[in-house]
Amino acid sequence: MKLIFGLLGAAMMIAFLLSLILKVKEVALIVVVMIGVVMMLVDLWNARNEADT
Fold this sequence. Notes:
Elements: H1 2-24, H2 27-47
């Protein structure tokens, strides 16, 4: 269940940040957002085997 909520949260976060990127279109912002998205996805990948609490 945690994986489903994690994927839903990741999709919502990416949609929010994508709208921000499309509006601002700065290279530095795009780089920072991409680093954050990769970190979020790595954390989600690592948390997939943890027990649900």
